[in-house]
Write a structure and sequence with these properties.
Elements: E1 7-13, E2 18-23, E3 28-32, H1 33-38, H2 43-46, E4 62-68, E5 72-77, E6 87-88, H3 89-95, E7 97-98
Antiparallel strand pairs: 1-2, 2-3, 3-7, 4-5, 5-6
This protein binds zinc ion.
Residues 40, 42, 44-45, 82, 84-85 line the site of zinc ion.
Length: 101
């Protein structure tokens, strides 16, 4: 695993319907629930070669964030959401959106 950056803080910001991550280099990124869910990298959502259309669901609620080893997160979503995605730190860096300060 060649992970360049690890998070220092992961927050489930239910009030604003997003997750936020502070990274060890000081960068802060946000992950609105719908975008986060629809970026799911699992084989269920993407197929093994990434050939499938991404899921396009809205109104997902993020119920629980779980760490996978020291390299990734997985998420428990409200009904209908995909529970299979393993989001590595590198992937999360890629799909995060800048925080509007
Ligand atoms: Zn999935």
């Amino acid at each position: 695993m060649s992970t360049r950056y690890a998070p220092t803080e992961v927050r489930n910001d239910r009030e604003n319907g997003r997750m936020t991550i502070s990274w060890e280099d000081g960068l802060r990124l946000q992950y609105p629930y719908d975008d986060l869910h629809n970026a799911c990298p699992s084989a269920t959502c993407r197929g093994h070669g990434g050939e499938k259309e991404p899921p396009n669901l809205s109104g997902m609620q993020l119920l629980h964030i779980q760490e996978v080893g020291t390299y990734a997160l997985r998420f428990r979503w409200s009904e209908g959401g995909c529970q299979d995605g393993i989001y590595t730190w590198d992937y999360l860096r890629e799909i995060g959106q800048p925080m509007v300060v």
